[in-house]
What we know:
Blueprint: H1 3-17, E1 26-29, E2 37-41, E3 52-58, H2 73-81, E4 85-89, H3 112-131, E5 135-145, H4 147-155, E6 175-181, H5 187-193, H6 199-203, H7 207-217, E7 229-234, H8 242-254, E8 260-264, H9 278-291
Parallel strand pairs: 3-4, 3-5, 5-6, 6-7, 7-8
Antiparallel strand pairs: 1-2, 2-4
Amino acid sequence: MSDDTAKRAAEEEHSAFSHPPVEPDATAAYGDHPDQVVDFYAPKGRQGPSGVPLVVILHGGAWRAPYDRRHLTPFAGFLARQGFAVANVEYRRGSSIPAQGGTGPVAGRWPDTFDDVAAALDALPALVKEHLPGADPRRTVLTGHSAGGQLALWAASRHVLPEDSPWHAPYPTHLRGVVALAPIADFALSRELKVCNDAVVQLLGGDARFEERAAHTDPAALLPTGIATVLVQGRDDADVPYTVAEAYADAAAKAGEVVGLTLLEGVGHFPPIDPAADACAVVAEEIAQLAF
Length: 292
């Protein structure tokens, strides 16, 4: 990475994390663990008699404990101001103990991370009815950033899993589409590139379990989904290279499915979730194209 690229990446990250947290209108639990909660944001703009679309957002942070849903609350507030009802999902992540041989915390908790996302999505219709009466859960769009982008793509593919999988779910007829932002969407390439300091390998419990567990969690292995899907990615992303998104789109094409891929010039990892960045407006428009 050149000095100029590194400087711009640092500036983009600072901008994305400089916004004060936006408090939700309501918070509800979908389980007993403290991390099994969802924040709800009521729409601030357009609202019709039939309700507004629901946007479910999943935060990134390489599935690691230090990064929780709070850093995504400005993005949630931004979407609410665009007229969407928003559900910001928390889930269990890796411990704060450094990974073996590494200096950073472990990525993900197996199988808890996936258990939580599945449970949250299953609980949302009832929770939305109670806490977001202005929302129409029959018009749901999933979105997520980085590791959360992977979880959004995975959540939309649960009907592709074997029926005896604990995460299997029927085809989500209420789901209008997925907008994945800089997603860790192809596990094989992400492992090869050591994305986010080998986060995918840690998430799946090490190399010995990688192939077995990736078959049930790698978005690129769970295709086609039949769900409208768009990936939004910065070409200058140094955290999750855009080639990972391209690999997912290529895998979808080989499976007979067309996936939209919007590559943003001069954009790194964080602008898609930064309300101050033009990239965030692009994301809102992509969501609106699927939702309305």
